[in-house]
Amino acid sequence: MRRVYLYARFQRFWHWMQAVIIFALLVTGMEVHGFFTLIGYELSFHVHNFLAWGLVTFIVLAFFWYITTGDFRQYLTEGNLLEKIGLQVRYYMNGIFRNEPHPFKKNEISRLNPLQRITYLMLTLVGLPLQIAFGFLYYYFNELVAFGMDPDWIEPIALIHTLLAYLLVAFVIMHVYMTTTGHTPTSNIKAMVTGWEEIDE
Amino acid sequence: MSERLIAVVALFVSSLIFPPPYLAAQTFHHELDSLSRSTADHTKFKQLQKDFRSGPEVTEACLECHTEASRQIHRTKHWTWEVPMKDGQMLGKQHTVNNFCIAVEGNEPRCTSCHIGYGWEDKKFDFTSERNVDCLVCHDGTGTYAKYPSGAGHPPYEDTAFGKKQFKAVDLSYVAQHVANPDRHNCGVCHFEGGGGDAVKHGDLDNSLLEPDRHLDVHMASGPDELNMTCTDCHQTEGHQVPGSRYQPMARDMHGFDYPLPDDYPTTCSSCHGLEPHKSYAKLNDHVDKVACQTCHIPAIAKERPTKMWWDWSKAGRLAEDGSQITELDSSGHAVYLSKKGEFVWEQEVVPEYRWFNGELNYTTFMTRIDDSKIVSVNHPDGEPGDSLSRIWPFKVHRGKQPYDPVLKRFVKPILYGEKGSGAYWADFDWDVAIQKGMDNAGLEYSGSYDFVETEMYWPLSHMVSPKEESLGCIDCHARNGRLGNLAGFYLPGRDYNLLVEIVGFSLIALTLLGVSVHGVLRFVSTKQRRDGVQ
């Protein structure tokens, strides 16, 4: 076992801010959706719309950081991505129960396995932007109608926003569970707090 | 000289210790009295310094100076009681059905106690008569002028009793010498008492508006430092044409600020408040195109006095054993049963009902064939979510049962008011005769049989506007069982959802939870087995 420094200070800050914001967005979104009364519809509405800007800000900030530091290379894969993903999936479906080693070793220059790479890339480049886009369509509905959008689109916009939120909930559950699959059940989370992770030799 | 200096210094020092309350100069105002209000003192007019024997005599005196006044009145619906619609239909009080006292025709001397004229006793009334215009009912500045309830518009000229109520003879020359621009009591004498008494008809108009606090009506609140607006501040009148109509209301004002007066006639909320009235919270302005101001800002009507919500004519006619009429009152003194009129339900703090409304109220007339298998709408608001004129409006919906002709499927006009033996229902309690006479009088066909049908009537609301802190919040409508729970045809966030999306979403989350649980358990078990094996 050795300790490696995987997550820079900004990455950890970004990760946890995004986690808090997404969690708060989900909770306030559910209140607006009518599931429960927590802080009141009106306040939930305001918080939700305010945090949407927060999420946008952090995504933009992250893009800036990844590009300027060159760390975006962490998300690139050499060779056959599908094959590598297959290896990782096979590990989670099979090898993990046989105490097989992780198929991809973590180190300072490669901290994400192929499945993580594709998942986080899709989340950051497709999932969240899509959800944010539909949120903004929803919020600026009146302005868009004034620009000529069909007012009947409010329903599909709202429904897609809802569906994507459910997908996000499912992702969060999966994501939190996956953190327990490291060297020890908490080593991944510790790493995201301190930056240092214990990994198998 | 030194004394003067001492005085100046003393004044300066004292002004430091006791600063004057206002440093700014105060504007000088003349006292508000009769001189500041009018160029004419009507007590000085010779024409008015005489004993008038009747209302029309007073009007003749008025017309000596205000030569065109009656001809202006003749053009108003206050006089004609009829409203020609764009589609050629003739509406107005004179022609429409209602589910209070049903119809004017045949009952004129009683109904026309709220007509702006004298002597409309039957259909022979001369609508071109100038002397029969009643100037005083709107211009009485004394509060002593009142029309006699069954006097066809005349006030009592000698002391007369109406039922248990005493009506004192009106001092016409006193009233004529003290005329004024209409105040709320002038409008209120008819409009607060529509339907036969205080608060009966509208729900948002009753005598509590004579001296309301700001909770009751933020515009008309009459206390110190309140707006103290009266009816004519919004219903700004020109040439005696009082704007504001329930037959052709403006459901959506798209002009915005235009007060005072008409490029946009009549005054609407937006005439003063504009089209983006919410300053601190812009999202509220996004509602303006689809939700009438009244919907959120009139959270309840009949705030102080109960209004009539149900009137069942089919229960009328029950008499005591000795043949006398029955009156049953509720604990607050409101009649819940009268032999003449049937059964009533009164409600206070009424939550309005909401409908899409584009400004067209569709009326059932006495010629309309009705569908008696369901509740008949005497009038109903037109409008739908998609069109650009329609907004969600609040209504008082008055329901009840009223007589109709089950063979011809039409409403009927009974004679209600009349002498004993005349056939009038309130005197003889025989529907057959009352309806037959009423239909004959109106020249309408009657099959000879009658029954009662349940009806509803919509009254759009614009009065009793609450202060902003009492207006509705988001959650009042954006909720599963909110105020707009029954209004279909559009997507309302917080209220609506798609069942398929919910099922797919919940299934996905459930499957994920199941998946990670199974995976976790398997991991736990396999690790344990391995460890046990090692040992």
From TrEMBL, chain B:
Organism superkingdom: Bacteria
Recorded hits in Gene3D superfamilies, A to Z, give: Flavocytochrome C3, Chain A (1.10.1130.10)
Transmembrane region positions? 499-522
Keyword RNA-binding part of the UniProt annotation? no
**Does the record bear Membrane in its keywords?**
yes
Recite the UniProt keywords alphabetically: Membrane, Signal, Transmembrane, Transmembrane helix
Tell me one GO molecular function of this protein.
oxidoreductase activity
Q: What is this protein called?
A: Tetrathionate reductase family octaheme c-type cytochrome
